[in-house]
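Support case: user asked for a sample of complex input and structure output to validate their parser. Sending the pair below.
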Amino acid sequence: MKAAVRHLLRNRRRSLLTLIAVIVPVFILVLMYGMVAGEMRGFFDGVVKLQTGHFQIRATTDRPAGGALPLIDDPDPLVALVETEPDIERLTVRLDVPALASSGDHSQGIVVQGIAAPQSGKRSPLADLVTDGHYLQGDGHSAVIGEDLARLLDLKVGDPLVLLGAHPDAGLGVAKPTIVGIFDAPDETLSRSVVEVDSAVAEQLVRQPGAATAIVAYVRGIGGPWDAEKIDRVVESLRSELPDGYEILDWRELSPDIGMYMRLARPIMTLFCGIFFVLGGLVVLNTLYLSVLERTRELGIIIALGASRRRVMRMIQIEAGLVAVAGGTIGALGGAALVWIVEAIGGLRLPGAYTGFLEAFGMRPVLHLRVTIPEIALSAAAMVVVALLAAWYPAFRASRLEPMEAMRYVE
Amino acid sequence: MSNEPLIRTRNLSKIYQADGVSTPALNGVDLELHESEFTAVAGPSGSGKSTLLHLLGGLDRPTGGEIYVEGQAMSALSKDQLAKLRLSQIGFVFQAYNLIPVLTVLENTAFVLELQGIVRSQRIERARKILSELGIAEYADQFPNRISGGQQQRVAVARAVVAEPSIVLADEPTANLDTATSLELIDLMRRLNAEKGATFFFATHDNRLLDRVNRLVTLVDGCIADDEVRNAA
Protein backbone atom coordinates (compact mmCIF):
# COMPACT_ATOMS: atom_id res chain seq x y z
CA MET A 1 0.00 0.00 0.00
CA LYS A 2 2.81 2.36 0.97
CA ALA A 3 4.67 1.45 -2.21
CA ALA A 4 1.52 2.08 -4.25
CA VAL A 5 1.19 5.56 -2.77
CA ARG A 6 4.85 6.26 -3.53
CA HIS A 7 4.42 5.04 -7.09
CA LEU A 8 1.51 7.44 -7.50
CA LEU A 9 3.52 10.30 -6.02
CA ARG A 10 6.52 9.48 -8.22
CA ASN A 11 4.72 10.75 -11.32
CA ARG A 12 2.46 13.36 -9.81
CA ARG A 13 1.27 14.94 -13.02
CA ARG A 14 0.06 11.63 -14.42
CA SER A 15 -1.52 10.63 -11.12
CA LEU A 16 -3.28 13.99 -10.98
CA LEU A 17 -4.62 13.48 -14.49
CA THR A 18 -5.92 10.05 -13.50
CA LEU A 19 -7.45 11.50 -10.36
CA ILE A 20 -9.24 14.18 -12.38
CA ALA A 21 -10.48 11.54 -14.82
CA VAL A 22 -12.02 9.75 -11.85
CA ILE A 23 -13.34 12.82 -10.08
CA VAL A 24 -15.18 14.37 -13.04
CA PRO A 25 -17.61 11.53 -13.87
CA VAL A 26 -18.48 11.00 -10.22
CA PHE A 27 -18.95 14.73 -9.68
CA ILE A 28 -21.19 14.95 -12.74
CA LEU A 29 -23.19 11.88 -11.72
CA VAL A 30 -23.90 13.23 -8.25
CA LEU A 31 -24.86 16.58 -9.74
CA MET A 32 -27.08 14.87 -12.30
CA TYR A 33 -28.75 12.87 -9.53
CA GLY A 34 -29.39 16.17 -7.76
CA MET A 35 -30.77 17.84 -10.88
CA VAL A 36 -32.98 14.93 -11.92
CA ALA A 37 -34.38 14.68 -8.40
CA GLY A 38 -34.90 18.45 -8.51
CA GLU A 39 -36.74 18.19 -11.82
CA MET A 40 -38.84 15.35 -10.51
CA ARG A 41 -39.73 17.28 -7.40
CA GLY A 42 -40.54 20.30 -9.61
CA PHE A 43 -42.83 18.24 -11.81
CA PHE A 44 -44.39 16.65 -8.79
CA ASP A 45 -44.98 20.00 -7.08
CA GLY A 46 -46.17 21.65 -10.28
CA VAL A 47 -48.53 19.01 -11.56
CA VAL A 48 -49.30 16.44 -8.90
CA LYS A 49 -49.64 18.75 -5.93
CA LEU A 50 -51.44 21.54 -7.78
CA GLN A 51 -53.57 19.65 -10.26
CA THR A 52 -53.98 15.92 -10.06
CA GLY A 53 -53.44 15.11 -6.40
CA HIS A 54 -51.70 11.90 -5.37
CA PHE A 55 -54.69 9.93 -6.55
CA GLN A 56 -58.29 10.46 -7.62
CA ILE A 57 -61.46 8.41 -7.48
CA ARG A 58 -63.66 8.91 -10.51
CA ALA A 59 -66.71 7.28 -12.06
CA THR A 60 -65.70 4.91 -14.83
CA THR A 61 -66.38 6.15 -18.36
CA ASP A 62 -66.07 5.15 -21.99
CA ARG A 63 -65.51 8.75 -23.03
CA PRO A 64 -62.26 9.49 -24.85
CA ALA A 65 -59.36 10.73 -22.78
CA GLY A 66 -59.49 14.47 -22.22
CA GLY A 67 -63.29 14.60 -22.32
CA ALA A 68 -65.43 15.79 -19.44
CA LEU A 69 -65.44 13.52 -16.43
CA PRO A 70 -68.74 11.74 -15.67
CA LEU A 71 -70.74 13.06 -12.76
CA ILE A 72 -70.79 11.27 -9.41
CA ASP A 73 -74.27 11.89 -8.00
CA ASP A 74 -73.37 11.17 -4.38
CA PRO A 75 -69.65 11.36 -3.49
CA ASP A 76 -70.20 10.96 0.28
CA PRO A 77 -69.73 7.12 0.44
CA LEU A 78 -66.49 7.52 -1.53
CA VAL A 79 -65.30 10.26 0.80
CA ALA A 80 -66.10 8.04 3.75
CA LEU A 81 -64.15 5.19 2.16
CA VAL A 82 -61.06 7.33 1.56
CA GLU A 83 -61.20 8.70 5.08
CA THR A 84 -60.90 5.19 6.48
CA GLU A 85 -57.27 5.24 5.33
CA PRO A 86 -55.17 6.57 8.20
CA ASP A 87 -52.42 7.87 5.87
CA ILE A 88 -54.67 10.35 4.06
CA GLU A 89 -53.48 13.88 4.75
CA ARG A 90 -56.19 15.76 2.86
CA LEU A 91 -58.97 15.17 0.37
CA THR A 92 -61.07 17.43 -1.77
CA VAL A 93 -64.35 16.73 -3.55
CA ARG A 94 -64.01 18.31 -6.95
CA LEU A 95 -66.55 19.03 -9.64
CA ASP A 96 -64.90 19.73 -12.98
CA VAL A 97 -67.10 21.33 -15.62
CA PRO A 98 -66.06 22.38 -19.11
CA ALA A 99 -67.18 25.99 -19.48
CA LEU A 100 -66.85 29.27 -21.29
CA ALA A 101 -65.65 32.23 -19.20
CA SER A 102 -66.77 35.63 -20.45
CA SER A 103 -66.19 39.25 -19.58
CA GLY A 104 -67.28 42.07 -21.83
CA ASP A 105 -66.30 41.22 -25.41
CA HIS A 106 -63.84 38.52 -24.42
CA SER A 107 -64.37 34.83 -23.71
CA GLN A 108 -62.14 31.82 -23.05
CA GLY A 109 -62.73 28.07 -22.92
CA ILE A 110 -61.85 26.84 -19.44
CA VAL A 111 -62.40 24.07 -16.93
CA VAL A 112 -64.28 25.10 -13.85
CA GLN A 113 -63.13 23.20 -10.78
CA GLY A 114 -65.69 23.29 -8.03
CA ILE A 115 -63.92 22.81 -4.72
CA ALA A 116 -65.76 21.78 -1.63
CA ALA A 117 -64.36 23.09 1.63
CA PRO A 118 -61.63 20.61 2.57
CA GLN A 119 -63.09 17.54 4.24
CA SER A 120 -59.99 17.09 6.33
CA GLY A 121 -56.51 18.49 6.73
CA LYS A 122 -54.91 21.32 4.84
CA ARG A 123 -56.39 23.59 2.19
CA SER A 124 -55.60 23.42 -1.53
CA PRO A 125 -51.96 24.06 -2.57
CA LEU A 126 -53.32 26.59 -5.07
CA ALA A 127 -54.17 28.81 -2.09
CA ASP A 128 -50.43 29.38 -1.62
CA LEU A 129 -50.15 30.79 -5.15
CA VAL A 130 -52.76 33.55 -4.72
CA THR A 131 -50.95 36.85 -5.26
CA ASP A 132 -53.94 39.20 -5.24
CA GLY A 133 -56.99 38.85 -3.00
CA HIS A 134 -57.51 35.56 -1.19
CA TYR A 135 -58.38 31.93 -1.81
CA LEU A 136 -61.92 30.48 -1.70
CA GLN A 137 -63.44 30.66 1.73
CA GLY A 138 -66.49 28.48 1.15
CA ASP A 139 -69.07 31.29 0.89
CA GLY A 140 -70.70 29.63 -2.12
CA HIS A 141 -70.26 32.36 -4.75
CA SER A 142 -66.53 32.95 -5.20
CA ALA A 143 -63.93 32.16 -7.83
CA VAL A 144 -60.15 32.39 -8.11
CA ILE A 145 -58.55 32.70 -11.54
CA GLY A 146 -55.02 32.64 -12.93
CA GLU A 147 -53.07 35.76 -13.86
CA ASP A 148 -53.13 34.86 -17.56
CA LEU A 149 -56.91 34.49 -17.64
CA ALA A 150 -57.31 37.76 -15.69
CA ARG A 151 -55.15 39.50 -18.29
CA LEU A 152 -56.98 37.85 -21.19
CA LEU A 153 -60.45 38.81 -19.94
CA ASP A 154 -59.31 42.06 -18.34
CA LEU A 155 -60.54 41.02 -14.89
CA LYS A 156 -59.51 41.96 -11.38
CA VAL A 157 -60.43 40.99 -7.82
CA GLY A 158 -64.03 41.96 -7.09
CA ASP A 159 -65.22 41.65 -10.70
CA PRO A 160 -68.00 39.21 -11.60
CA LEU A 161 -67.11 36.30 -13.86
CA VAL A 162 -69.75 34.92 -16.23
CA LEU A 163 -69.51 31.16 -16.66
CA LEU A 164 -71.46 29.07 -19.17
CA GLY A 165 -71.13 25.40 -18.27
CA ALA A 166 -71.59 22.59 -20.81
CA HIS A 167 -71.29 19.21 -19.11
CA PRO A 168 -72.36 16.25 -21.32
CA ASP A 169 -74.27 14.62 -18.42
CA ALA A 170 -76.13 17.82 -17.45
CA GLY A 171 -76.42 20.13 -20.43
CA LEU A 172 -75.96 23.87 -20.19
CA GLY A 173 -75.81 25.87 -16.97
CA VAL A 174 -74.92 29.43 -16.02
CA ALA A 175 -73.24 30.93 -12.95
CA LYS A 176 -71.83 34.33 -12.07
CA PRO A 177 -69.36 34.09 -9.16
CA THR A 178 -67.24 36.96 -7.87
CA ILE A 179 -63.49 36.87 -8.32
CA VAL A 180 -61.94 36.88 -4.84
CA GLY A 181 -58.38 36.01 -5.76
CA ILE A 182 -55.89 35.83 -8.61
CA PHE A 183 -53.18 33.19 -8.53
CA ASP A 184 -49.78 32.97 -10.19
CA ALA A 185 -49.38 29.39 -11.45
CA PRO A 186 -46.12 28.16 -12.92
CA ASP A 187 -48.04 26.25 -15.57
CA GLU A 188 -49.46 28.43 -18.35
CA THR A 189 -52.40 26.07 -18.93
CA LEU A 190 -53.33 26.22 -15.28
CA SER A 191 -53.04 29.99 -15.27
CA ARG A 192 -55.18 30.51 -18.39
CA SER A 193 -57.64 27.64 -18.44
CA VAL A 194 -58.52 26.62 -14.88
CA VAL A 195 -60.89 28.49 -12.64
CA GLU A 196 -61.45 27.30 -9.11
CA VAL A 197 -64.86 28.07 -7.67
CA ASP A 198 -66.88 27.17 -4.59
CA SER A 199 -68.57 23.85 -5.15
CA ALA A 200 -71.97 25.58 -5.08
CA VAL A 201 -71.00 27.57 -8.18
CA ALA A 202 -69.99 24.45 -10.08
CA GLU A 203 -73.19 22.71 -8.95
CA GLN A 204 -75.13 25.60 -10.50
CA LEU A 205 -73.39 24.86 -13.83
CA VAL A 206 -74.48 21.20 -13.79
CA ARG A 207 -77.74 22.01 -12.01
CA GLN A 208 -77.20 19.11 -9.61
CA PRO A 209 -76.52 19.90 -5.94
CA GLY A 210 -73.97 17.66 -4.23
CA ALA A 211 -72.57 16.28 -7.51
CA ALA A 212 -68.84 15.74 -8.05
CA THR A 213 -66.50 14.41 -10.72
CA ALA A 214 -63.56 13.32 -8.55
CA ILE A 215 -62.37 12.76 -5.02
CA VAL A 216 -58.85 14.19 -5.03
CA ALA A 217 -56.67 12.87 -2.22
CA TYR A 218 -53.21 13.53 -0.82
CA VAL A 219 -51.21 11.03 1.23
CA ARG A 220 -49.33 12.04 4.35
CA GLY A 221 -45.52 12.35 4.34
CA ILE A 222 -44.92 12.68 0.59
CA GLY A 223 -41.90 14.91 -0.11
CA GLY A 224 -41.53 14.02 -3.76
CA PRO A 225 -41.79 11.20 -6.26
CA TRP A 226 -39.21 9.20 -4.31
CA ASP A 227 -41.98 8.66 -1.70
CA ALA A 228 -44.34 7.24 -4.34
CA GLU A 229 -44.40 3.82 -2.68
CA LYS A 230 -46.46 5.24 0.18
CA ILE A 231 -49.04 6.47 -2.34
CA ASP A 232 -49.01 3.10 -4.09
CA ARG A 233 -49.75 1.31 -0.82
CA VAL A 234 -52.79 3.50 -0.08
CA VAL A 235 -54.04 3.18 -3.67
CA GLU A 236 -53.71 -0.59 -3.57
CA SER A 237 -55.55 -0.76 -0.28
CA LEU A 238 -58.46 1.39 -1.55
CA ARG A 239 -58.63 -0.30 -4.95
CA SER A 240 -59.73 -3.56 -3.35
CA GLU A 241 -62.62 -1.84 -1.55
CA LEU A 242 -63.85 0.41 -4.34
CA PRO A 243 -67.51 -0.16 -5.37
CA ASP A 244 -68.36 -1.05 -8.98
CA GLY A 245 -68.63 1.86 -11.41
CA TYR A 246 -65.66 3.72 -9.94
CA GLU A 247 -61.96 3.69 -10.58
CA ILE A 248 -58.93 4.92 -8.69
CA LEU A 249 -56.14 6.56 -10.67
CA ASP A 250 -52.73 7.32 -9.19
CA TRP A 251 -50.63 10.37 -10.10
CA ARG A 252 -48.75 8.48 -12.84
CA GLU A 253 -52.03 7.56 -14.57
CA LEU A 254 -53.39 11.07 -14.12
CA SER A 255 -50.22 12.67 -15.58
CA PRO A 256 -48.83 10.06 -17.97
CA ASP A 257 -46.24 12.49 -19.40
CA ILE A 258 -44.76 13.04 -15.96
CA GLY A 259 -44.92 9.35 -15.15
CA MET A 260 -43.07 8.53 -18.36
CA TYR A 261 -40.46 11.22 -17.71
CA MET A 262 -39.85 9.85 -14.25
CA ARG A 263 -39.50 6.33 -15.60
CA LEU A 264 -37.07 7.44 -18.32
CA ALA A 265 -35.10 10.21 -16.62
CA ARG A 266 -32.85 8.01 -14.53
CA PRO A 267 -32.01 5.42 -17.20
CA ILE A 268 -31.21 8.23 -19.67
CA MET A 269 -29.12 10.02 -17.08
CA THR A 270 -27.36 6.76 -16.23
CA LEU A 271 -26.64 6.21 -19.92
CA PHE A 272 -25.09 9.66 -20.31
CA CYS A 273 -23.10 9.29 -17.12
CA GLY A 274 -22.06 5.83 -18.29
CA ILE A 275 -20.33 7.50 -21.23
CA PHE A 276 -18.40 9.73 -18.83
CA PHE A 277 -17.53 6.70 -16.75
CA VAL A 278 -16.25 4.82 -19.79
CA LEU A 279 -14.13 7.83 -20.78
CA GLY A 280 -12.84 8.08 -17.22
CA GLY A 281 -12.09 4.36 -17.27
CA LEU A 282 -10.15 4.73 -20.53
CA VAL A 283 -8.00 7.47 -19.02
CA VAL A 284 -7.32 5.25 -16.01
CA LEU A 285 -6.44 2.37 -18.34
CA ASN A 286 -4.16 4.57 -20.42
CA THR A 287 -2.28 6.11 -17.51
CA LEU A 288 -1.89 2.80 -15.70
CA TYR A 289 -0.68 1.16 -18.89
CA LEU A 290 1.91 3.91 -19.32
CA SER A 291 2.87 3.44 -15.70
CA VAL A 292 3.32 -0.31 -16.24
CA LEU A 293 5.43 0.33 -19.35
CA GLU A 294 7.55 2.83 -17.47
CA ARG A 295 8.09 0.37 -14.63
CA THR A 296 8.64 -2.72 -16.77
CA ARG A 297 12.18 -3.14 -15.43
CA GLU A 298 11.07 -2.72 -11.83
CA LEU A 299 8.22 -5.19 -12.31
CA GLY A 300 10.74 -7.60 -13.84
CA ILE A 301 12.80 -7.38 -10.66
CA ILE A 302 9.74 -8.02 -8.52
CA ILE A 303 8.83 -11.05 -10.62
CA ALA A 304 12.46 -12.23 -10.55
CA LEU A 305 12.41 -12.07 -6.75
CA GLY A 306 9.50 -14.49 -6.75
CA ALA A 307 6.31 -12.43 -6.84
CA SER A 308 3.41 -14.47 -8.20
CA ARG A 309 1.36 -13.23 -11.14
CA ARG A 310 -1.57 -12.64 -8.82
CA ARG A 311 0.59 -10.57 -6.54
CA VAL A 312 1.81 -8.39 -9.44
CA MET A 313 -1.76 -7.90 -10.64
CA ARG A 314 -2.83 -6.93 -7.16
CA MET A 315 -0.05 -4.33 -6.94
CA ILE A 316 -1.32 -2.54 -10.04
CA GLN A 317 -4.93 -2.89 -8.95
CA ILE A 318 -4.17 -1.43 -5.53
CA GLU A 319 -2.78 1.66 -7.26
CA ALA A 320 -5.90 1.92 -9.40
CA GLY A 321 -8.05 1.32 -6.34
CA LEU A 322 -6.31 4.08 -4.41
CA VAL A 323 -6.83 6.59 -7.21
CA ALA A 324 -10.42 5.43 -7.67
CA VAL A 325 -11.31 5.62 -3.98
CA ALA A 326 -9.64 9.02 -3.59
CA GLY A 327 -11.11 10.38 -6.83
CA GLY A 328 -14.52 8.82 -6.22
CA THR A 329 -14.68 10.27 -2.72
CA ILE A 330 -13.57 13.73 -3.83
CA GLY A 331 -15.95 13.68 -6.80
CA ALA A 332 -18.91 12.44 -4.76
CA LEU A 333 -18.36 14.81 -1.86
CA GLY A 334 -17.67 17.67 -4.29
CA GLY A 335 -20.90 16.99 -6.14
CA ALA A 336 -22.84 16.67 -2.88
CA ALA A 337 -21.28 19.89 -1.60
CA LEU A 338 -22.32 21.73 -4.75
CA VAL A 339 -25.87 20.39 -4.43
CA TRP A 340 -25.92 21.56 -0.82
CA ILE A 341 -24.54 25.01 -1.75
CA VAL A 342 -27.09 25.42 -4.55
CA GLU A 343 -29.89 24.56 -2.16
CA ALA A 344 -28.46 26.91 0.48
CA ILE A 345 -28.65 29.84 -1.98
CA GLY A 346 -32.23 29.04 -2.95
CA GLY A 347 -31.96 26.66 -5.86
CA LEU A 348 -30.60 26.74 -9.37
CA ARG A 349 -32.04 29.22 -11.85
CA LEU A 350 -31.41 27.75 -15.26
CA PRO A 351 -30.89 29.60 -18.56
CA GLY A 352 -33.72 30.51 -20.98
CA ALA A 353 -34.39 27.43 -23.09
CA TYR A 354 -34.38 25.13 -20.10
CA THR A 355 -36.66 27.52 -18.22
CA GLY A 356 -39.19 27.20 -21.07
CA PHE A 357 -38.95 23.43 -20.84
CA LEU A 358 -39.61 23.46 -17.12
CA GLU A 359 -42.51 25.89 -17.45
CA ALA A 360 -44.06 23.68 -20.12
CA PHE A 361 -44.23 20.98 -17.46
CA GLY A 362 -45.77 23.32 -14.95
CA MET A 363 -42.59 23.93 -13.02
CA ARG A 364 -41.05 27.07 -11.69
CA PRO A 365 -37.78 27.90 -13.49
CA VAL A 366 -35.75 27.22 -10.35
CA LEU A 367 -34.47 23.74 -9.67
CA HIS A 368 -34.23 22.55 -6.10
CA LEU A 369 -31.56 19.88 -6.16
CA ARG A 370 -31.71 16.80 -4.00
CA VAL A 371 -29.26 13.95 -3.63
CA THR A 372 -29.36 11.08 -1.16
CA ILE A 373 -26.48 9.39 0.66
CA PRO A 374 -27.05 6.07 -1.20
CA GLU A 375 -26.84 7.97 -4.52
CA ILE A 376 -23.59 9.65 -3.44
CA ALA A 377 -22.14 6.33 -2.31
CA LEU A 378 -23.35 4.57 -5.46
CA SER A 379 -21.69 7.18 -7.69
CA ALA A 380 -18.33 6.76 -5.95
CA ALA A 381 -18.63 2.97 -5.84
CA ALA A 382 -19.48 2.80 -9.55
CA MET A 383 -16.29 4.69 -10.39
CA VAL A 384 -14.21 2.41 -8.18
CA VAL A 385 -15.61 -0.59 -10.07
CA VAL A 386 -14.95 1.10 -13.45
CA ALA A 387 -11.38 2.01 -12.45
CA LEU A 388 -10.66 -1.52 -11.21
CA LEU A 389 -12.03 -2.97 -14.44
CA ALA A 390 -9.91 -0.49 -16.42
CA ALA A 391 -6.87 -1.51 -14.37
CA TRP A 392 -7.33 -5.15 -15.20
CA TYR A 393 -5.59 -5.06 -18.60
CA PRO A 394 -2.46 -3.16 -17.48
CA ALA A 395 -2.32 -5.39 -14.41
CA PHE A 396 -2.69 -8.49 -16.55
CA ARG A 397 0.10 -7.32 -18.89
CA ALA A 398 2.33 -6.60 -15.90
CA SER A 399 1.71 -10.05 -14.45
CA ARG A 400 2.64 -11.73 -17.75
CA LEU A 401 6.05 -10.06 -18.06
CA GLU A 402 9.02 -12.39 -18.48
CA PRO A 403 11.52 -11.40 -15.78
CA MET A 404 14.63 -11.35 -17.98
CA GLU A 405 12.95 -9.48 -20.82
CA ALA A 406 11.45 -7.02 -18.37
CA MET A 407 14.77 -6.40 -16.64
CA ARG A 408 16.44 -5.75 -20.00
CA TYR A 409 13.71 -3.25 -20.90
CA VAL A 410 15.02 0.24 -21.59
CA GLU A 411 12.58 3.15 -21.71
CA MET B 1 29.17 -31.04 2.32
CA SER B 2 26.52 -33.41 1.06
CA ASN B 3 27.13 -35.56 -2.00
CA GLU B 4 23.61 -34.88 -3.30
CA PRO B 5 23.90 -31.75 -5.47
CA LEU B 6 21.74 -28.76 -4.69
CA ILE B 7 21.55 -27.91 -8.36
CA ARG B 8 22.45 -30.19 -11.25
CA THR B 9 22.34 -29.41 -14.94
CA ARG B 10 22.33 -31.99 -17.69
CA ASN B 11 23.40 -31.07 -21.22
CA LEU B 12 22.11 -27.53 -20.69
CA SER B 13 21.91 -25.34 -23.77
CA LYS B 14 20.48 -21.99 -24.67
CA ILE B 15 20.16 -20.46 -28.12
CA TYR B 16 18.85 -16.91 -28.48
CA GLN B 17 16.76 -16.17 -31.54
CA ALA B 18 16.56 -12.62 -32.84
CA ASP B 19 15.48 -11.47 -36.30
CA GLY B 20 15.92 -14.99 -37.65
CA VAL B 21 19.48 -15.21 -36.36
CA SER B 22 20.39 -17.94 -33.85
CA THR B 23 23.03 -17.12 -31.27
CA PRO B 24 24.15 -20.02 -29.09
CA ALA B 25 24.95 -18.91 -25.55
CA LEU B 26 25.32 -22.25 -23.73
CA ASN B 27 26.17 -25.52 -25.28
CA GLY B 28 25.79 -28.76 -23.31
CA VAL B 29 26.70 -27.61 -19.81
CA ASP B 30 26.82 -30.32 -17.14
CA LEU B 31 27.30 -28.81 -13.71
CA GLU B 32 26.69 -29.76 -10.12
CA LEU B 33 26.53 -27.24 -7.27
CA HIS B 34 26.65 -28.59 -3.74
CA GLU B 35 25.49 -27.20 -0.45
CA SER B 36 27.73 -24.53 1.13
CA GLU B 37 29.97 -24.17 -1.91
CA PHE B 38 31.39 -20.75 -2.72
CA THR B 39 31.82 -20.98 -6.46
CA ALA B 40 32.68 -18.44 -9.12
CA VAL B 41 32.03 -18.81 -12.80
CA ALA B 42 34.53 -16.92 -14.88
CA GLY B 43 35.14 -16.46 -18.56
CA PRO B 44 35.37 -13.81 -21.22
CA SER B 45 32.44 -11.61 -22.18
CA GLY B 46 29.87 -13.59 -24.14
CA SER B 47 31.01 -16.90 -22.71
CA GLY B 48 27.55 -17.57 -21.25
CA LYS B 49 28.09 -16.73 -17.56
CA SER B 50 25.00 -14.56 -17.17
CA THR B 51 22.90 -16.94 -19.27
CA LEU B 52 23.90 -19.83 -17.01
CA LEU B 53 22.97 -17.87 -13.89
CA HIS B 54 19.62 -16.83 -15.34
CA LEU B 55 18.80 -20.40 -16.29
CA LEU B 56 19.84 -21.74 -12.88
CA GLY B 57 17.66 -19.10 -11.23
CA GLY B 58 14.60 -19.94 -13.30
CA LEU B 59 14.54 -16.47 -14.83
CA ASP B 60 14.81 -17.90 -18.32
CA ARG B 61 14.03 -21.25 -19.94
CA PRO B 62 16.75 -23.37 -21.55
CA THR B 63 16.53 -24.38 -25.21
CA GLY B 64 17.72 -27.91 -24.34
CA GLY B 65 18.82 -30.04 -21.42
CA GLU B 66 17.50 -29.94 -17.88
CA ILE B 67 18.10 -28.27 -14.54
CA TYR B 68 17.34 -30.10 -11.31
CA VAL B 69 16.94 -28.17 -8.07
CA GLU B 70 17.14 -30.58 -5.15
CA GLY B 71 16.12 -33.30 -7.57
CA GLN B 72 13.13 -31.42 -9.00
CA ALA B 73 13.22 -30.86 -12.78
CA MET B 74 12.71 -27.16 -13.48
CA SER B 75 11.11 -27.76 -16.88
CA ALA B 76 8.17 -29.43 -15.14
CA LEU B 77 7.36 -26.28 -13.21
CA SER B 78 4.74 -23.73 -14.27
CA LYS B 79 5.48 -20.01 -14.17
CA ASP B 80 3.92 -19.64 -10.75
CA GLN B 81 5.75 -22.70 -9.44
CA LEU B 82 9.01 -21.25 -10.76
CA ALA B 83 8.21 -17.98 -9.01
CA LYS B 84 7.59 -19.92 -5.80
CA LEU B 85 10.91 -21.75 -6.23
CA ARG B 86 12.76 -18.44 -6.72
CA LEU B 87 11.02 -17.01 -3.69
CA SER B 88 11.73 -19.90 -1.35
CA GLN B 89 15.08 -21.29 -2.48
CA ILE B 90 17.00 -18.80 -4.57
CA GLY B 91 18.47 -15.41 -3.75
CA PHE B 92 19.60 -13.05 -6.49
CA VAL B 93 22.22 -10.34 -6.64
CA PHE B 94 22.22 -8.45 -9.92
CA GLN B 95 25.02 -6.51 -11.53
CA ALA B 96 22.94 -3.31 -11.59
CA TYR B 97 21.75 -3.76 -7.95
CA ASN B 98 18.09 -3.70 -9.13
CA LEU B 99 16.67 -2.32 -5.93
CA ILE B 100 13.08 -1.09 -6.02
CA PRO B 101 13.35 2.70 -6.11
CA VAL B 102 10.14 3.49 -4.20
CA LEU B 103 11.09 1.28 -1.25
CA THR B 104 13.57 2.22 1.46
CA VAL B 105 16.65 0.09 2.16
CA LEU B 106 14.77 -1.66 4.97
CA GLU B 107 11.67 -2.21 2.81
CA ASN B 108 13.78 -3.50 -0.10
CA THR B 109 15.47 -5.96 2.23
CA ALA B 110 12.17 -7.07 3.75
CA PHE B 111 10.39 -7.27 0.38
CA VAL B 112 11.14 -10.95 -0.23
CA LEU B 113 9.88 -11.77 3.26
CA GLU B 114 6.72 -9.81 2.47
CA LEU B 115 6.25 -11.89 -0.69
CA GLN B 116 6.66 -14.98 1.49
CA GLY B 117 3.78 -13.75 3.65
CA ILE B 118 5.80 -13.26 6.80
CA VAL B 119 4.15 -10.90 9.28
CA ARG B 120 5.38 -7.31 9.32
CA SER B 121 7.00 -7.34 12.77
CA GLN B 122 9.03 -10.44 11.95
CA ARG B 123 10.15 -9.29 8.54
CA ILE B 124 11.23 -5.90 9.88
CA GLU B 125 13.18 -7.58 12.66
CA ARG B 126 14.90 -9.98 10.26
CA ALA B 127 15.66 -7.25 7.73
CA ARG B 128 17.15 -4.98 10.41
CA LYS B 129 19.26 -7.88 11.67
CA ILE B 130 20.77 -8.66 8.27
CA LEU B 131 21.34 -4.97 7.51
CA SER B 132 23.15 -4.71 10.82
CA GLU B 133 25.27 -7.80 10.03
CA LEU B 134 26.21 -6.24 6.69
CA GLY B 135 27.06 -2.91 8.31
CA ILE B 136 24.42 -0.83 6.58
CA ALA B 137 21.80 -0.53 9.32
CA GLU B 138 22.25 3.24 9.40
CA TYR B 139 20.84 3.49 5.86
CA ALA B 140 17.69 1.52 6.67
CA ASP B 141 15.35 4.44 6.09
CA GLN B 142 17.12 5.82 3.03
CA PHE B 143 15.89 5.33 -0.50
CA PRO B 144 18.31 3.52 -2.87
CA ASN B 145 19.12 6.64 -4.88
CA ARG B 146 20.48 8.32 -1.73
CA ILE B 147 23.25 5.76 -1.06
CA SER B 148 26.43 4.76 -2.92
CA GLY B 149 26.77 1.91 -5.41
CA GLY B 150 28.68 -0.21 -2.91
CA GLN B 151 26.00 0.34 -0.28
CA GLN B 152 23.27 -0.47 -2.80
CA GLN B 153 25.00 -3.72 -3.68
CA ARG B 154 25.22 -4.60 0.02
CA VAL B 155 21.49 -4.00 0.24
CA ALA B 156 21.04 -6.30 -2.76
CA VAL B 157 23.07 -8.97 -0.95
CA ALA B 158 21.00 -8.41 2.20
CA ARG B 159 17.82 -8.86 0.16
CA ALA B 160 19.24 -12.03 -1.42
CA VAL B 161 20.12 -13.71 1.87
CA VAL B 162 17.46 -12.38 4.26
CA ALA B 163 15.06 -15.23 3.50
CA GLU B 164 17.89 -17.75 3.97
CA PRO B 165 17.65 -19.37 0.51
CA SER B 166 19.47 -22.60 -0.37
CA ILE B 167 21.51 -20.83 -3.01
CA VAL B 168 22.48 -17.26 -3.81
CA LEU B 169 23.14 -16.48 -7.46
CA ALA B 170 25.08 -13.30 -8.20
CA ASP B 171 25.62 -11.98 -11.71
CA GLU B 172 28.83 -9.94 -11.73
CA PRO B 173 27.96 -8.31 -8.41
CA THR B 174 31.16 -6.27 -8.36
CA ALA B 175 31.10 -5.06 -11.97
CA ASN B 176 30.07 -1.54 -11.01
CA LEU B 177 32.22 -1.28 -7.89
CA ASP B 178 35.76 -0.12 -7.29
CA THR B 179 38.40 -2.65 -6.25
CA ALA B 180 38.26 -2.04 -2.50
CA THR B 181 34.47 -2.18 -2.43
CA SER B 182 34.50 -5.27 -4.66
CA LEU B 183 36.84 -7.11 -2.30
CA GLU B 184 34.74 -6.02 0.69
CA LEU B 185 31.59 -7.33 -0.99
CA ILE B 186 33.15 -10.68 -1.88
CA ASP B 187 34.48 -11.02 1.69
CA LEU B 188 31.02 -10.23 2.93
CA MET B 189 29.50 -12.92 0.72
CA ARG B 190 32.20 -15.31 1.87
CA ARG B 191 31.36 -14.54 5.50
CA LEU B 192 27.65 -15.19 4.88
CA ASN B 193 28.63 -18.43 3.14
CA ALA B 194 30.61 -19.50 6.16
CA GLU B 195 28.19 -18.30 8.83
CA LYS B 196 24.85 -19.20 7.25
CA GLY B 197 25.97 -22.11 5.12
CA ALA B 198 24.32 -20.61 2.01
CA THR B 199 25.64 -21.79 -1.34
CA PHE B 200 27.01 -18.95 -3.43
CA PHE B 201 27.45 -19.11 -7.20
CA PHE B 202 28.53 -15.89 -8.81
CA ALA B 203 29.77 -14.74 -12.16
CA THR B 204 32.81 -12.52 -12.46
CA HIS B 205 35.55 -11.64 -14.87
CA ASP B 206 37.60 -9.92 -12.19
CA ASN B 207 40.66 -12.12 -11.58
CA ARG B 208 41.43 -10.35 -8.28
CA LEU B 209 38.40 -11.98 -6.71
CA LEU B 210 39.15 -15.51 -7.81
CA ASP B 211 41.60 -16.34 -5.01
CA ARG B 212 38.70 -15.97 -2.58
CA VAL B 213 36.60 -18.82 -4.01
CA ASN B 214 36.91 -22.50 -3.26
CA ARG B 215 35.75 -23.56 -6.70
CA LEU B 216 36.14 -21.90 -10.07
CA VAL B 217 34.17 -22.87 -13.14
CA THR B 218 35.49 -21.42 -16.39
CA LEU B 219 33.19 -21.01 -19.35
CA VAL B 220 34.38 -20.52 -22.90
CA ASP B 221 31.94 -20.22 -25.81
CA GLY B 222 29.09 -21.64 -23.76
CA CYS B 223 30.98 -24.75 -22.63
CA ILE B 224 32.71 -25.56 -19.36
CA ALA B 225 36.41 -25.29 -20.18
CA ASP B 226 37.62 -25.89 -16.64
CA ASP B 227 36.17 -26.79 -13.23
CA GLU B 228 38.79 -26.32 -10.52
CA VAL B 229 38.56 -26.80 -6.76
CA ARG B 230 40.71 -24.22 -4.98
CA ASN B 231 41.94 -23.36 -1.55
CA ALA B 232 40.30 -20.03 -0.80
CA ALA B 233 42.41 -17.24 0.68
